[in-house]
Amino acid sequence: MGKIRLILLLTLTSCSSVKMVENWKSPDVVLFGPEKVLLVGMTGNEEVRTHFETALLREFFLRGTEAMRSLDLFDVEFINSERSEEEIAAVERLLLSRDFDAVLLTKITGYENQMSPQIKRREVERKYDRFRDNYGEHQYLYYQSGPSEADAGQYMIETAIYCIRTGKTQQLIWKETVRVTDTKDLERVVEQYISQLLRAMEQQQVIKNLIENENTDL
């Protein structure tokens, strides 16, 4: 099983339209192994959000990590209108009460043909230390439509991982920004992005390693 997955991963990445732009990890963190993670894909495209969160959920399960899709936590009313900081903080408290210790948040940071070099650099370098700030700043992604596929061109996607353990609430652990150069096949892009994302997180020890978990199961 492990060899088959490795061959598939190499095939996807060898012709991938997903390229890493920036990668950052907190200098205060050597190893981070969350036990229960909320997976948040911030997009108004419900089909893409469902595909992304479901595929990522399966990958975390294979690594022995409990996870939950935001689809199963946030109702339609919650994401279809702007929420205050206090409402988002209430979500954090709910997560803590249910023993979540991390949030993984993925969003489109911008469409390159609509961004000046200064804006692109600012978006790549900007770090939100707290989950609530990142979510609050970009919640419009749920209910504002972006450019059409024909106009979008290349775009950038960012994933950030936050630790929400008691005593370390909202600590930004890791973030990565990638550039997507092919927007024609969204399902294939999601698969490539997840492969890139998992490989980077495993290499930098912010999630459990799949191969190690498979060996443990043997």
Describe the secondary structure blueprint for this structure.
Elements: H1 2-14, E1 18-25, E2 36-42, H2 46-62, E3 66-69, H3 76-79, H4 85-97, E4 102-111, H5 117-125, H6 131-138, H7 149-152, E5 155-163, E6 171-180, H8 186-203, H9 210-217
Parallel strand pairs: 2-3, 2-4
Antiparallel strand pairs: 1-6, 4-5, 5-6
Helix pairs in contact: 2-8, 4-6
- Coarse morphology: globular
- Alpha-carbon distance between the termini? 12 Å
Percent helix among the residues? 40-55%
Largest sheet: 6 strands, mixed
Low-confidence stretches: 1-14
The tally of strands reads 6
Instruction: Walk across the major sheet and give the strand order.
Output: 1-6-5-4-2-3
Cα-based radius of gyration, to the nearest Å: 17 Å
Tally of alpha and pi helices: 9
Compute the average pLDDT: 81
Order of helices and strands: HEEHEHHEHHHEEHH
How would you explain this protein's 3D organization?
By secondary structure, the protein is an alpha/beta fold. The chain contains 9 helices and 6 strands; from the N terminus they run αββαβααβαααββαα. The chain has helices spanning 2-14, 46-62, 76-79, 85-97, 117-125, 131-138, 149-152, 186-203, 210-217, and strands spanning 18-25, 36-42, 66-69, 102-111, 155-163, 171-180. It is globular. 29% of the residues are buried.
Keywords:
six-stranded mixed beta sheet, single chain, alpha/beta, 218 residues, 43% helix, disordered N terminus
Concise synopsis of the structure shown:
This protein is of the alpha/beta class and 218 residues long. The protein has helices spanning 2-14, 46-62, 76-79, 85-97, 117-125, 131-138, 149-152, 186-203, 210-217; strands at 18-25, 36-42, 66-69, 102-111, 155-163, 171-180. It has 9 helices and 6 strands, in the order αββαβααβαααββαα.
